[in-house]
Amino acid sequence: DSGVTQTPKHLITATGQRVTLRCSPRSGDLSVYWYQQSLDQGLQFLIQYYNGEERAKGNILERFSAQQFPDLHSELNLSSLELGDSALYFCASSPRGFSYNEQFFGPGTRLTVL
Amino acid sequence: SQQGEEDPQALSIQEGENATMNCSYKTSINNLQWYRQNSGRGLVHLILIRSNEREKHSGRLRVTLDTSKKSSSLLITASRAADTASYFCATDAGGAGSYQLTFGKGTKLSVIP
Fold this sequence. Notes:
- The structure holds two protein chains of two kinds.
- Chain A is built from no helices and eleven strands.
- By secondary structure, chain A is an all-beta fold.
- By secondary structure, chain B is mostly beta strands.
- Classes of the chains: A mainly beta, B mainly beta.
């Protein structure tokens, strides 16, 4: 158990809908990362937050947005969902958010868009 | 685009044998990390090697880094069935204040009992 929690574990929804994925980092970790893992694209970095502020942005679509709240939990919002958004979404956390920090991954949310 | 690319994509060995996976990357880095993922689960950090290090050990794991060739290798000695998983290398973008990691597509290792 990494100490990172993600809810829900599974999510099934329809095209065009909007969903919110939630992540609670390890106690004491200030940085949260979001990743998307699919068979064809592999593990893609989406976005990183550090202590409430956006720090780095990766291949995140405009239809996706995220935020980190004062209690350090984070939410990833996916809107106007398409079939291709079906994937595993991972959240990870690290103490200070530098690349030399080990990242601790949550169990993931499996999103299925029908 | 992927910074790190693992090779081979899949590897099948007998229990007790050694497994070697390679990672190549394109630009200069500050450090390189290896992670393991059991099927459909979150990634677990294995080891980090800094750009000024050439070799690092952790238990049955040995990682090497050759910055001149922009490549790294992960050796698992005396493999066990429990080592069956996908293994990913992750690299940063280099430079000061580097934050994010870029993961390769992974090597899928199967250890046959």
